[in-house]
Design goal:
- Keywords: Hydrolase, Metal-binding, Nuclease, Nucleus.
- It holds the Pfam family DDE_Tnp_4.
- It is a single chain.
- This protein is mainly alpha-helical and 129 residues long.
- Helix content is 49%, strand content 3%.
- The protein folds into 2 domains: 13-54, no CATH class; 61-129, no CATH class.
- The two termini are 26 Å apart.
Amino acid sequence: MSYRPQRDSIAGSTHDSRILMESGLRQLFERHHVPVGCHLLGDSGYPCKTWLLTPYLNPQPGAQLKAHKNTRNVVERGIGQVKRRFHVLHGEIRLSPERASSVITVCAILHNRYGLLFKVLNSGDMLIG
């Protein structure tokens, strides 16, 4: 799972879906500049888009409920992974909003770029090369 940082120039009270709809990321998806099969995950507050997966509002028992639980599990594990990797994200960030945004952005970039390297280093395997 990878993370895409959002703009830090928008007030904290702005809904995530508005930020996404005004972002360059939305344009990349809508102009088909993103590989087929790539999707974003959003909550029920996001609009219906072919590239944006949102949960069923009232999942039916069976396949819908299972898909809902599995997706939520993947998201929660991903967030937990980043928070464990970067302890600064595990609790309250006592920085100005601008500085906190920069820290979160850097953590997302490092997670995306070096995720595999972190796994290898944490496993105790030796790197050769």
